[in-house]
Structure formats: structure tokens, C-alpha cells
Amino acid sequence: MLQKRIASFRYAFKGIALLIKTQANARFHLLATALVIVAAWYLEVSALEWAMLALTIGSVLAAEGFNTALEFLTDLVSPDYHELAGKTKDVAAGAVLITAFAAVAVAVFIFGPKIVALIL
């Protein structure tokens, strides 16, 4: 049983590595994550703000992973162009964009007042 648990973690880490290796958008999100972490540290965000940032970052990265998985699966079952396959990919990409917009909103709410206070 322990071997199966260890193997499942190995497969999950393999999936994360594949996501990062093959998806430019995932690498962009990781760069944004690094910038957010540096900004949060510099601006001394609260524990609750750290928690909100962690959930937001996790949501964006997970959405990117789900999108990539759907793209891989769509390519498998529909290697030739099909309108529904295109719609599937578009909707999945749209879900990532929605999540990214929400992440920007969270960043504005958390960092905005702190940046304004630094300027004034």
C-alpha cells in the first residue's frame, strides 16, 4: 500500500514537471508567482493575505494543469481538427484566463493599498 502511495506522488510530480517543461504559460505563471512572493515578503503581508495569495496561486497553477490535461486528451481523441475539439480547448483556456484575472484582482486588493502607502 505504501508503494502505491509513493508511486502516486511520483506520477503527480512527473505531471508537474511535464506541465512546466511543455507549457510556456505555466512557466509565465511561475515567474509571476516568484514576483508575487517577493512583493509579499517586501510589503510584509499578513498571514491571512499570505493564505489568500497561496490559494490564488494554487488555483491559477491548477487551472493551467487542468487546461493542459484537457488539451492532451483532446489531441488524443481528436487528432484531426474538429469544431468541438476546438471549443473544448477554448473553454479550458478561458477558464485559466478567468482564474488569472481573479488573481490580478486579489493582487490589487492586497498590494494596492500597501503600494499607495509607500508612495504617499
Could you explain the architecture of this structure?
The chain is mostly helical and 120 residues long. 90% of the residues lie in helices and 0% in strands. It is flat, with a radius of gyration of 18 Å. The N and C termini lie far apart (59 Å).
N-to-C SSE string, H for helix and E for strand: HHHH
Shape: flat
**Average residue pLDDT:** 97
Tally of contiguous helical segments:
4
Distance between the termini: 59 Å
Largest sheet descriptor: none
Provide the fold topology:
Elements: H1 2-22, H2 24-42, H3 47-77, H4 83-119
Relevant terms:
120 residues; mainly alpha; 4 helices
Summarize the structure.
With 120 residues, this protein is mostly helical. The protein is built from four helices and no strands.
